[in-house]
Write a structure and sequence with these properties.
five-stranded parallel β-sheet, alpha+beta, globular, 24% strand, 14 helices, seven-stranded mixed β-sheet
């Protein structure tokens, strides 16, 4: 017989199979020896009060075990000689689109402007040593996209639960730890993602698809309002039945290309701000309500804050417990930071973006740029922060309390940002609409989480690549561009996703619609 129960245990007990079995037996009021198998389906932490507990959704069996259907095992068929679809970008949207195309019998040709992930890691190592940024191989561009060197968070707001679980299963199939299948807030870790990305690429190649690195798209071939392929920076033409455009939120040259070609794009609300870093042990004490050291059976604590200030949302973004702040610019004329964590989340620092919502009416001075107004505003803030940091990869920074009180920091706390930080008046450098709302928000967060607003925390500028400031409009039913058949704007860069999981889901959806227009309507 199968039983579905929910257990609430202390962290230590939740890590011990024997104690879990004893708790199940107690709740079912049966001897433990009668339980033949236990399967944990979901695991979450309840840190609303002390002591912190772990909640387990458990399936327990007595007698003969009813075999559950196996996890989704993709059927990657051989697509050599099949109709070809160009996928621009090897981030999560592009990779999952390519894999789904293979399942549906179409051959993906994935083009990626950057390098394969192993070579990309070498460029990032040089960047963290304060060497110039490679505009084609950095924290945004290259195999795996921006998500490869992040925490590998797999959260999504998508209501399509089945689609989300399928994404997790495909990642697990390609080497991700099985914990992602049960954790309420799954993450992979930046140390493990590169191998998973390599495995996905190998699946594509083994099935007859192609993956072309160091290949940047410079034009889109459009005939009679139908996309026929693309042109690369090498002058090559790649013809295809369709093009899935999954270039990511930092491909500014793609937005400028579309704008110049007269292909419709739109201003999209986005967010900008700073990355704030605290000692991880402080965040642990705040979030776990315990002045002592974190329980060894608990992971480094996270947080998610949001509030309203001046009719705009201010919220935490991409919180990285036990993580590092990294240089995320895509050329030498920008100062951009982001965060990442390894799978063990074992850095002594906790960092998060704290960002302010930006709407079209917030950037009136940039109206002359039309639908690129948000992009140009974003770029100017990044350039201002570059100058404040000394025109190098050194980042402008300020103690959190000094930022809130609008005063220059005479010294700075330790920081995980390897290229180094320099004291700068970020409260003055950032646009007033961002700076004021950030100061209000930090005060609010400090009231909600006692100890958060502290001189031991540092803000680093600027966190500007939270999402695309441009949307590429598409038909809600076909997912094709509203005026160009065969062109499928996809993922975060097109304005339809935010993060690894939602980009992957959108990539699969675009692949399925692409199969439909190619006459393959029996979609599994």
């Amino acid at each position: 017989m199968k039983y579905e129960i929910i257990l609430r245990l202390l962290p230590k007990d939740a890590s011990d199979d024997a104690l879990i079995k004893a708790a199940v037996a107690k709740q079912l009021n049966i001897p433990a020896r009668e339980i033949t198998e236990i399967s944990i389906r979901k695991r979450s932490i309840d840190a609303r009060h002390y002591p912190v507990s772990v909640q387990l959704h458990v399936e327990a069996y007595t007698g003969k075990v009813e075999k559950e259907p196996p996890l989704h095992v993709p059927n990657y068929r051989n697509v050599l000689g099949a109709s070809e679809v160009v996928v621009v970008g090897a981030g999560p949207g592009g990779l999952f689109a390519a894999l789904r195309l293979i399942e549906l019998g179409l051959k993906p040709i994935v083009i990626e402007r950057g390098k394969e992930v192993s070579e990309r890691k070498k460029d990032l190592a040089q960047l963290n040593r304060n060497n110039p940024v490679n505009p084609e191989s950095n924290y945004a561009f290259g195999e795996g996209g921006a998500g490869t060197f992040s925490d590998g968070k797999l959260n999504t707001r998508s209501k399509k639960r089945g689609s989300f679980e399928r994404i997790l299963e495909i990642l697990h199939f390609h080497g991700a730890d099985s914990d992602i299948l049960i954790d309420a807030h799954p993450h992979v870790g930046t140390d493990r993602l590169p191998q998973i990305i390599k495995n996905m690429r190998q699946t594509i190649v083994n099935a007859g698809g192609e993956v072309l690195f160091n290949t940047r798209m410079t034009d889109i071939i459009v005939e009679n309002n139908t996309c026929k392929g693309i042109v690369t920076a090498k002058g090559e033409t790649i013809a295809a039945r369709a093009v899935i455009l999954a270039t990511g939120h930092s491909a500014r040259d793609v937005y400028e290309l579309l704008y110049k070609r007269g292909i419709d794009i739109e201003f999209k609300p986005f967010a900008m701000g700073v990355r704030v870093e605290h000692p991880q042990e402080l965040i642990d004490r705040i979030q776990y309500h315990n002045p002592q050291e974190r329980d060894e059976y608990l992971p480094p604590a996270t947080y998610a804050f949001t509030c309203q200030s001046g009719e705009r949302g201010v919220y935490s973004f991409c919180m990285c417990p036990g993580g590092h702040i990294v240089p995320a610019m895509t050329d030498g004329d920008q100062m951009v930071v982001n965060g990442m964590s390894a799978s063990q989340r074992n850095s002594p620092f906790a960092n998060s973006g704290i960002v302010v919502e930006i709407r079209c009416e917030d950037v009136p001075d940039f109206d002359k740029y039309g639908t690129l107004a948000g992009l140009m505003y974003q770029q100017q803030v990044e350039q201002n922060c570059l100058r404040a940091g000394g025109r190098h990869i050194t980042a402008p920074a300020q103690r959190l309390t000094d930022f809130v009180n609008r005063r220059l920091s005479f010294d700075l706390p330790a920081c995980s940002y390897l290229p180094g930080i320099v004291s700068a008046p970020l409260h003055f450098i950032l646009p007033e609409g961002i700076s004021t709302r950030l100061r209000d928000a930090f005060k609010t967060f400090g009231r909600r989480a006692k100890g958060f607003l502290t001189k031991d925390a540092v803000v680093v500028g600027t966190e500007s690549r939270t999402s695309s400031p441009v949307r590429i409009p598409r038909n809600a039913e076909t997912l094709q561009h509203i005026h160009i058949k065969g062109l499928f704007p996809c993922g975060e860069g097109a304005g339809y996703a935010g993060g690894i999981a939602s980009s992957a889901i959108d990539g699969e959806r675009c692949a399925e619609k692409c199969a439909e227009i190619n006459g393959l309507r029996n979609i599994n």
